[in-house]
Amino acid sequence: MAEFWGKVIELGLKGKQLTEFVESQTRLLAQREERQVQREREERQAQREREERQAQREERQAQREERKMELKRLELQIKMERKRLELQTEMMRVQNEHEAPRLRDNQQQMLHRASKLPASTDGKDQIDTPDFTGKVEAVCLKKPLYDLLIGNIGGARRPDDNDFEWRMGAAQPAVEEEDPLPFANEDISELLRDDRATVHRRDQPQVVSAVTTRAQAKKDKTTTPLRVTNSSATAVVDRDRLIQLQEADLTLTKYRSRPVKEMTKGEGTVHFEVKAKILYRVFQHPRVNGGKPLRQVLVPQPLRRQVMEVAHDSIMGGHLGVKKTSDRIQAAFYWPGLHADVTRFCRSCDICQKTIPRGRVPKVPLQKMPLIDRPFKRVAIDLIGEIKPPSEAGHRWVLTLVDYATRYPEAVPLKKIDTETVAEALVDIFSRIGVPEEILTDLGTQFVSECMEEVNRLLSIRHLTTTPYHPMCNGLVKKFNATLKSTLKKLCSEQPRQWHRYINALLFAYREVPQESTGFSPFELMYGRTVRGPMQILKELWTKDVDTPEVKNSYQYVFELREKLEETLEIARENLRKSQDSGKHYYDRKAVNRKFTPGNKVLILLPTDHNKLLMQWKGPYEVEAVVGINDYKVNVGKKSKIYHANLLKLYVERPPEAVQVAASVEEPAELDEFDGEELLELGDLHKKEGVDDVKLGPDLTEDQQKELHDFMGDFTHRFSDVPGSTSLVEHEVHLTSDVPVRSKPYPIPFQARESLKKDIDNMLKMGVIRESSSPYSSPVVVVKKKDGTNRVCIDFRKVNKITVFDPEPMPTATDLFRQLTGSKIFSKIDLSKGYWQIPVREEDIPKTAFATPDGTYECLRMPFGMVNSGATLKRGMRKMLKGMKNVVYYWDDLLVHTETFAEHLETLRELFSRLTKANLTVRPSKCILGTDNVDFIGHSLKEGQKGLLLENVTKILNAPRPETKKQVRSFLGLAGYYREFIPNFAAITAPLSDMTRKGCPNRILWGPAQEKAYQTVRDLMSRDPVLRLPDTAKEFILRTDASDEGIGAMLMQEHGGKPFPVSYASKKLSGAEKNYSTMEKECLAIVWGIKKFELYLQGVKFVLQTDHKPLTYLNSAKFVNNRIMRWVMYLQNFDMRVESIKGSDNVGADFLSRVCE
């Protein structure tokens, strides 16, 4: 506008010129707006066209997929038809094999008889058959067995020739004696054998190639056989057996003794008769069997189950319902109580019970939710998403909240749905509406995590959750979610990525209109008045009538508002009660009051293993307890979970088939010293190690050695290199996705395949793995072990990425060594393949499948490489050793430590008793008992001291000088494992660690500083440094110091009147820390040293020795340094005594200063 008037003043327009100019400018603006509108219209049209094209592409893609599925179905039908024809051909062949000898004997008998009978006519007759064409000498018999019987004559087709297009070239005379066929004296049953190889060679050309092509392999691939339910009807019952069973069945006696007379049954007639000693029921009905009599065999009791299995469970039974199964049986059989038996049989069918549609199981009556009469006393919370496409700002989810009393909704768009984000959004909502007393959510991880539980605890909120897979319990917010999504879809159809900007407007629209259940709008119940919305504004614009508010004082307004809110809520509560009654009335019309009792077997409607959106009946599981009106605690595997009754279905168990035993012989079992758990071990694998391979301490006396040998004799079966199978724990694999993980197998070197095959066979014999058809597949890697043999490793990285992490705490070396203080006798025990002694949970076994060149296998025992394998082993060890003293463990290594030998032997016996109970075995060759010097977790332990492991020190000393970043990191990693033995390790190795920074060349520029650091580490390691094990009964001494490059700390304890180091620690200063003043660096060294050894110093008195006096400054009356102020507040948590020492006495700090300078 300013530009417009500026132009008018510049041109000096007045009067008519000004009017024309204004009109022209107005037209220009109108044209611009019209062009803008046209462009927007064209953009929307183009957007719609793009969406239509996308929809067409998706539709064509769906059609292609549908055609592919149709082709697959046709291929499957063709394969099944081929299989049926092959089965039919096989049955005919077998039948021919059984009939051939009888036909041959009959043929010879008939020919013999025919030779003795006078011929009615003799001569040569012309015949034309698929087996022979031409003139033959024929004889006519008085009582022929067949219309035409062709003997062993020349020119006839061989019986084993399956060529149905066979034609004889010319008629040949029958000269039996002069031209006998080459198979005249052979057994005809051998000729009827189906020589598949011969037929294959006749029908197909012979293929000779160096490799098998894909088409050839596909052609030779055998069809997967169909799974057929095992049926007891396979036992053949002949006619004599049937007669015998009928005569012995007391339930059929009355029908056998009943006179043959017809009985009327509706429109039909029934009578019983005995024909050829077999009892029949003859039924005749105008609409059955065309009105002809239907003869039904009366089935005795032992055969009734077989008949029902064939009619219902067999592959051609189809698992049909009760009526169709009964009709199928009555077409040939009958027995008294047939319909009741078939009903029980079909209802107890395991397959039918697990595949019944969900809608066929009636729901339980609807229960009323408690009516909430106070706003925001209880709120329902849920999440919507993931929404595609995401909003322009990156929002993908919506957090929704609805109040039970007022139906007042809240919705907040979110970019993430982790616990922290959801908690912050809820607190933001609570800041507007107040903190509720109760919240109701589903079992989403965001709502049941420890962080959310802590938020609820701090805000004094009671958290209620729904049962699994039962969203009806949280139906209030689910209904609001559906309304919000439907309305949001309509509003943002033209701008789908702007959906987050429409939420507030939609919330206003939802809050403004009355709810059907309460009769009031959420705004009215919330604020006690009708808010000013679009309708009121439009009315005011049209009528110019604005209500003048009545002037009231604050007290009168609050009092009247409270009364109005109470009256409104009371009316809303009454309307809610009526709405509940109406909804329950209509819902319960098809409901059935189903109840379960503890001990009942039930099926649970759960998601499938491959798609969580598809539900199927799983089980059976046992009901443990009744939790609520319709909630039950069910034992699922080894866990107890609560499910709603609508997800449960009573499982009818089929009674076991009664087996008639003619005789039995009982023999006493000779188990010797083995118990039931030992019998579970496979006997194919013989152990190669025993108690003779166990090492004993070299300083033991003869009596002590004898006691240890007696102890090992009592637990001989525990010392074995064959892994046991424990029942302490099962390895569980919980995945975040149900989509099977498949990886391409890695190529295995040919020289390693033989050893791989032996390892696979060995694991199969031990029961560690089994053959698999799982959709999961992980590749196999062969790794060389220390002894030169190969180890089969499975690459589970893809499975680990989607595995829910097990937070089982892992033991640290520091914690373990602290417990060894004062111990003088040690025994080191290593489990025999500890991982393989833990079974995998049955439902998780397919997830461990791996592929090898010889096939796919899956793990029955816990494999190496899975992300939670260590946590499962740790949990099992913790359970076994719970409450036991003088035993520490690190993974599958156990260390028994005591002060006296008698206590040591007693501890060993208790440990091995627990190992026996847990059915765990130990590797004899890796066990050493009753020694005063033992290697444990990379350290050497002796007489309360901790030293370096010689093997690792040798590696460091013999390591070549590193030349690349990777080699430097490897060297620092190996040497850093013993950094607590080297004073100021960080400062010494600073020149080396600086070379591994980002931006430095990959090839190390080796200089004097790097050479000095490298040689210093090697020199310090070669001196065999020794540390004392920490003794918590003695006072700790902490020495600290700082230099321009780093800070160091040394934890010590007095032994024999002299301080002895327990551990060293050092840290290289950062760029900012190097700028600290000397006083601040000294203070930093003290604070950092205390933090480093806080596990030892927390809660005990200790001495702080320093050659500086920073604490004098810290304890002064006033100071302005905020950093030092924070350190002072931290140091208040410790009980320490400060001692000032000379710089020459502070050996560790002095060494640090000299090294860093």
TrEMBL record:
It holds the Pfam family RT_RNaseH. Keywords: Endonuclease, Hydrolase, Nuclease, Nucleotidyltransferase, Protease, RNA-directed DNA polymerase, Transferase. Residues 30-67 are annotated as: Disordered. GO terms for biological process: DNA integration; proteolysis. GO terms for molecular function: endonuclease activity; nucleic acid binding; peptidase activity; RNA-directed DNA polymerase activity. SUPFAM superfamilies: DNA/RNA polymerases, Ribonuclease H-like. Residues 764-941 form the Reverse transcriptase domain. InterPro entries: DNA/RNA_pol_sf (IPR043502), Integrase_cat-core (IPR001584), Integrase_H2C2 (IPR041588), Retrovirus_Pol_polyprotein (IPR050951), Rev_trsase/Diguanyl_cyclase (IPR043128), RNaseH-like_sf (IPR012337), RNaseH_sf (IPR036397), RT_dom (IPR000477). It comes from the Eukaryota. Residues 371-530 form the Integrase catalytic domain. This is Reverse transcriptase. It comes from Littorina saxatilis.
